[in-house]
Specification:
345 residues, 2 domains, two-stranded antiparallel sheet, globular, mainly alpha, 1% strand
């Protein structure tokens, strides 16, 4: 436990030290997010490249406290790919196809290093068995890994539309993944979750409203890649088989926002990848909440979902775990019906 405390404090202090340096460099070289009067309504230009500060503090913490295995090196290489991709996009916006290709390459690196969803609970009545069941399970797991990782990476990118929102939700998710790792006695997952949590908490010192620096695409995609991977390698089915749905709940806030904006854009006849003010956070703010109240409300929902996910993992029967999940889905549908009534520009 002393080691875990040291890792968290080291990551926190590293990010508190590095972030102002990155912020100053971004301002000097004019790598800033400028208001456009449309979706970007902040009062003055805000420094980008916050993701670099999080990445460097995370990497420094691991270097000083952890032995790099093949899986860890693969994860860090994949993280480096999305960081570089995000930096290029922050400097000069890339098209969605180019960003998608870069994300696919990063996920391929993870899979090549043996990090992918392990299928172990496919019921026979699904009819998915083939002559080589092990090969079939691997192919299905790899396909699910691509879908899962692309969804989480882009979900954290999409939700990064308000001061402190994406980083704070990432902090909550990383802490609950640390708890999962402790329960599972998974040392690598525990260290990486806690190093990420400390880095995000240090970054929030400068990113919470009024933000002095933004994550940028580099930061949001890095958080998504790390949390998607850590959630994927956790074990959730020791007590009941429905526990495998817990990662969906742990990362429920960004995944919900992604589905919400895609649904509302589809209803309007828009492209689902076209920018629009349909995010739940923007709708909450339009309903009368301040930016800070909106972000804190999202944090509260994230904490509730974290507790629910741990409950799904720990309850003794699949029925109890399924009931928790169905209750969350029902609340999400009710929230959608209310949010879609809020009129947006």
């Amino acid at each position: 436990m002393l080691l875990y405390i040291f890792i968290f404090i080291l990551a926190l202090c590293s990010c508190l030290y590095i972030t102002p340096i990155v912020m100053e460099a971004a301002i000097i070289y004019d790598i800033v997010d400028k208001p456009d009067g449309n979706l970007k309504k902040h009062q003055r230009p805000v420094a980008y490249l916050g993701g670099i500060a999080i990445y460097l503090s995370f990497l420094a913490t691991l270097a000083l406290s952890f032995d790099f295995s093949r899986e860890v090196l693969g994860l860090l290489l994949a993280a480096t790919i999305v960081i570089l991709l995000g930096i290029i996009d922050d400097l000069k916006p890339l098209g969605p196809k180019v960003k998608l290709l870069g994300q696919v390459i990063a996920i391929f690196v993870l899979i090549k290093c043996g990090i992918y969803i392990q299928i172990a609970i496919i019921p026979d009545w699904l009819g998915l068995s083939i002559p080589s069941q092990e090969l079939g399970d691997d192919l299905l797991g790899i396909g699910m890994t691509f879908f899962w990782m692309l969804a989480v990476i882009n979900a954290f990118n999409i939700i990064d539309i308000m001061d402190g929102l994406s980083a704070g939700i990432g902090l909550i998710a990383s802490l609950v993944l640390f708890v999962v790792a402790i329960i599972n006695s998974h040392y690598m997952m525990a260290v990486m979750s806690l190093a990420l949590a400390g880095s995000l908490l240090g970054f929030l010192r400068y990113n919470f409203q009024p933000a002095k620096i933004y994550l940028g695409d580099a930061g949001s995609m890095f958080i998504g890649l790390m949390l998607g991977t850590l959630a994927m390698i956790g074990v959730y089915t020791e007590q009941n088989q429905v526990g495998y749905l817990a990662p969906l709940v742990i990362l429920g806030v960004p995944l919900y926002d992604t589905m919400l904006v895609m649904y509302l854009r589809w209803r309007k006849g828009m492209s689902v990848i076209q920018g629009s003010p349909d995010h739940f956070a923007l709708r909450l703010r339009r309903s009368g909440l301040t930016t800070r109240q909106t972000v804190l409300s999202a944090y509260a929902v994230g904490l509730i979902l974290a507790a629910a996910a741990l409950g799904m993992k720990l309850v003794p029967t699949a029925g109890m775990s399924g009931s928790i999940f169905l209750g969350i889905v029902a609340c999400g549908l009710a929230a959608t019906l209310w949010l879609k009534r809020i009129k947006m520009d």
